[in-house]
Every structure is written in C-alpha cells, then in structure tokens.
C-alpha cells in the first residue's frame, strides 16, 4: 500500500516537473532551423544568405541562395555565371566576390575562358563605390603590355585588358575576334590577373536584420506574404523579438 502511494506520488511529481517545459519551453522550429552554417571555411552563412539544400529558404532573402564549392567557399549564381564569395561583411551589408572562372584554378590550361557581362539591374545587389571597370578582349591577334594571358577558346590568341578610355581600344577591338566583356576590379596594384582573382565588392539592399538579431532573433523571409520575418526563440515577429 505505502509502496503504491510513493510510486504514484513519484509519478505525479515527475509529470508536474515535465509539464511546464513542454508548454513554455519548446523552441520555435524556424528559430532552430536558421542557425548559421558554413561551407567548410570560416565564413558564416546567415540571413540574407542561405545554403541551398542545407539551410531552409525561409532563413534567407529570395535570390540569396548559395551553393558550396569543394574548396569550402560559398558560391552565388549571377547572370548565369558562378561567383565565388571570398568574404561576407555583415557589418556593412557587402561582400567580396569574383567570377569563378578567374578564381578557381583551371587544371587543363592557364588560359582564360571568356566570361559573361554581369548584369545587376533587377537584383538586390549593386557595385560598391570606388572600384574600377575594365574591358577584357578575347581572341586577340597581338601581344603587348595589356596582354594578360592566352584565350581558352583559341590558345594561340591572347586576352587583353584595357580601360574603356584607352586610346588604343578601337585598334584592339579590330584585332580581337573572341568578344569583349566588362569586368570590375577593386584595384590593379598587383596586376590585372591578381585583381580578377581577388574580385570586387557588392552591396546588398534587403530588409535589415540588425533590430531582430540584436533582440535575440534570427532573420528570415516568408515568400507567401513576401515579408521579412524575425524568428524568436518561442515565436515569430515582423521586426524584432518582444522584450521580457
Ligand atoms: C578566417 O577568415 C579570415 C577572414 O575573415 C581569414 O583572413 C583567415 O585566413 C581565415 N582563417 C582560416 C583558418 O581559414
Ligand atoms: C547555380 O546554377 C547551377 C547551374 O548553372 C545550379 O546547378 C545550381 O543549383 C545553382 N545554385 C544556386 C544556389 O542557385
Ligand atoms: C565593408 O567593410 C569591409 C571591412 O570590414 C571592407 O573591406 C569593405 O570594403 C566594406 N564595404 C563597403 C561597401 O564599404
Ligand atoms: C587562333 O588565333 C590566331 C591568332 O590570333 C589566329 O591566327 C587563328 O586564325 C585563330 N584560329 C582559329 C581557329 O580561329
Ligand atoms: C558585354 O557588354 C558589351 C557592352 O558593354 C557588349 O559589347 C559585349 O558584346 C557584351 N559581351 C558579351 C559576351 O555578351
Ligand atoms: C559596360 O560598361 C560600360 C561603362 O563602363 C557601360 O556603359 C555598359 O553598359 C556596360 N555593359 C554591360 C553589358 O554591363
């Protein structure tokens, strides 16, 4: 009899101690899902970015899905081309990227493949100020101070880098049959090849995450209502987590 009573009491106490944790203590699954991740290097990936297949799209802003390269770097598709993300600066909404063609070593040859023009209109991305625009001319029938390498499509021809204002541009255009593309670089102090490898800086303009992050939330986006969301430990808000 007393044995039964103690075990029943024990059971009741057990249920009482478990109950509050189940009703109040359960975490918002979206808060848990939007934990920052990496592609393997030490770059953290969080809003407005998300890694496709690893993080949920609701953890990022539409169009900011990344993929991971074998080298641990994240990649972003822009204008149907792959761009390597060297570093993300969450403090000033910017990142340094480079066209993967210039930054991933080509094992078959050291020649440069022709790339695309990057078009940012209609996206949430823009070039940061104080960067330089260059023109690359492919398939050139000449070698000179502006030559930066051979052309992948025809290895006996060259690739030439020029400023748009260069007085020799018209002459070069006549001698280059492989097409031209605009490229952006930060500076050319260590040469054009190195500048292309290092890439350039892009700024993003999307709903700001700071208020939410500073209130202990994780930022995200709901594509059904096309709105920013702040995932708090126990619920979801429009801007930031309520205090207390
Ligand atoms: C970590 O990232 C910093 C830039 O944020 C970089 O300079 C450093 O080399 C990285 N360290 C490792 C071990 O990858
Ligand atoms: C980028 O484009 C490639 C094909 O060009 C595709 O396989 C990949 O899933 C895309 N990645 C993202 C993050 O959209
Ligand atoms: C943001 O800050 C980093 C250094 O923290 C700097 O390299 C980068 O150029 C800055 N971005 C812009 C747009 O100024
Ligand atoms: C390759 O480039 C060289 C030098 O510009 C040129 O003489 C040759 O005709 C090109 N070959 C083809 C197949 O276009
Ligand atoms: C890139 O843009 C320029 C105009 O600025 C154009 O002449 C050129 O054909 C474009 N290149 C490609 C590969 O589309
Ligand atoms: C190439 O750059 C020039 C200015 O440097 C610009 O007028 C032109 O629109 C750009 N073309 C493309 C396709 O981005």
TrEMBL record:
Q: What is its EC number?
A: 2.7.11.1
Give a single Pfam family match. Answer: GUB_WAK_bind
Q: State if Metal-binding is listed as a keyword.
A: no
Q: Enumerate the InterPro entries for this protein.
A: WAK_assoc_C (IPR032872), WAK_GUB (IPR025287)
Write out the catalysed reaction: L-threonyl-[protein] + ATP = O-phospho-L-threonyl-[protein] + ADP + H(+); L-seryl-[protein] + ATP = O-phospho-L-seryl-[protein] + ADP + H(+)
- Indicate how the chain sits in the lipid bilayer: Single-pass membrane protein
Please provide one cellular component term from the Gene Ontology annotations of this protein: membrane
Domain named Wall-associated receptor kinase C-terminal is located at 150-233
Q: Which keywords does UniProt give here?
A: Glycoprotein, Kinase, Signal, Transferase
**EC primary class:** transferase
Major localisation: membrane
Outline the extent of the Wall-associated receptor kinase galacturonan-binding domain.
Answer: 34-98
Signal peptide span: 1-25
Domain of life, source organism: Eukaryota
One GO molecular-function annotation for this sequence? polysaccharide binding
Record flagged with keyword Signal: yes
Tell where it localizes: Membrane
Family annotation (PANTHER family): OS01G0690200 PROTEIN, WALL-ASSOCIATED RECEPTOR KINASE C-TERMINAL DOMAIN-CONTAINING PROTEIN
This protein is called what?
A: non-specific serine/threonine protein kinase
């Amino acid at each position: 009899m007393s044995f039964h009573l103690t075990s029943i009491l024990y059971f009741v106490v057990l249920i009482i101690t478990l109950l509050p944790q189940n009703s109040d203590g359960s975490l918002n699954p979206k808060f848990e899902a939007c934990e920052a991740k990496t592609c393997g290097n030490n770059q953290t990936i969080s809003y407005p970015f998300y890694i496709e297949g690893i993080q949920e799209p609701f953890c990022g802003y539409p169009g900011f899905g990344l993929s991971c390269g074998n080298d641990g770097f994240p990649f972003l598709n822009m204008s149907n081309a792959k761009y390597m993300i060297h570093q993300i600066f969450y403090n000033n909404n910017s990142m340094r990227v480079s066209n993967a063609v210039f930054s991933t070593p080509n094992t078959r040859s050291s020649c440069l493949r022709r790339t695309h023009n990057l078009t940012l209109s209609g996206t949430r991305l823009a070039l940061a100020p104080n960067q330089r625009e260059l023109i690359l001319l492919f398939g050139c029938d000449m070698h000179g101070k502006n030559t930066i390498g051979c052309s992948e499509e025809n290895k006996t021809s060259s690739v030439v880098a020029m400023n748009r204002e260069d007085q020799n541009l018209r002459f070069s255009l006549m001698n280059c049959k492989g097409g031209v593309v605009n490229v952006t670089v930060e500076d050319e102090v260590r040469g054009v090849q190195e500048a292309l490898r290092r890439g350039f800086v892009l700024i993003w303009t999307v709903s700001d995450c700071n208020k939410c992050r500073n209130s202990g939330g994780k930022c995200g986006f709901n594509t059904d209502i096309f709105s920013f969301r702040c995932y708090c430990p126990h619920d979801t808000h429009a801007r930031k987590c309520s205090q207390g």
